[in-house]
Amino acid sequence: MRVEKSMTFLSCWALLLYVLHRKMPPGGVGQRLVACLLNISEARSKDIVEKVARAAIFDSKRGQRKGTTVLNIFNDHDYNRSVITIAASIDIIREAVLSACELACQLIDMQNHVGDHPCMGAVDLVPMYPLGEEVGLVECGKEARALAISLTERVPGTSVFHFGFADSPHHRGLAQRRKEMCWFQKDPDLEAIKPDVGEKFERRYGLTGVGASPYVMNCNVTIDTQDLAVGRQVARGLRESSPGGLPGVQVLALPHEGAVEIACNVESVRGAPPDGSWPSFRICGEQYCHAPAPLITARVAQLAGEQGVGVKGTALVGFTPEECRGLAERALAQGIAGVPAGTTEAPFPGTRPLTRPKAPKFGSRGAGVELLV
């Protein structure tokens, strides 16, 4: 099954090809890099999503933020959800993320939100991921906690729950914390929810998850059925907590564009790859690995096939950990603040023109936002 990374926009793919064809220049950017995959509860307004992304890379008073880049914007119309990939040194990323969060809170009202993906906040999720050996998880956790406090101070009425290494000393995972916060419930009792930071939250802003963990990749597999019960059965067989499930894989089955999507959070797990073939990387000397997208697709195909259902396609949201670091290094070394508007023509010497399908219009599956920088 061909794995289509259809969530990125075209110029981003050209830049990624350049990374794969050229080595990092000596002395290039790459020290203490982290990524924040900012999840906001809006995808149907191109203007809002663009403004939030721009806020991360442009200061209204000082202009472009040096050392900060937006690598990718994924959006999904049915889910009404966008993911903005921000990369920078851990020493400067807080202000970029806070500026984006602050504007998102101004522009998105959860009282009017409609979408098929579970969510609780205008800014729904703020995860911080180290991109290599130079930054550890404990440091990312401290930065995430500081960011959470700053958000609630800048936007009164916002509230936060911690997860991962921001949830000290417990280090509870995102899935567990979401359950505790009633994130999976359709109509949760908001009065009963006790945030970790902030006062009793306002419905306009909702509740934001802020945390730190090893990189989490999103891999979504669409199965050819409208029967959500079939999707839930597939999800149960795939998730880590089930016998025979894949390590690090958390799964939801959601209705999507007349079919069912098996939406997977693919967490990086500590240790050597189970069979030596999983992609791996290191954080402060510790080895981590993650289930590869082809394996996830094959397992979904197997589980769905047992119920007489086929697979329609697979899509990665953003990048693998290795791709994210490589692209961040190249973008920052070249001073690229955000992914510029582009075409299918190769913009860099030595790269080939892309042969990807024509990009769909904004609001449809796989659409992207072009940052005109």
TrEMBL record:
SUPFAM superfamilies: Formiminotransferase domain of formiminotransferase-cyclodeaminase. Transmembrane segments: none annotated. The keyword Amino-acid biosynthesis does not apply. InterPro entries: Formiminotransferase_C_sf, Formiminotransferase_N, Formiminotransferase_N_sf, FormiminoTrfase_cat_dom_sf, FTCD. Pfam families: FTCD_N (PF07837). One of its GO terms (molecular function) is transferase activity. It comes from the Eukaryota. Residues 343-363 are annotated as: Disordered. Residues 1-30 form the signal peptide. This is Formiminotransferase N-terminal subdomain domain-containing protein. It comes from Albula glossodonta.
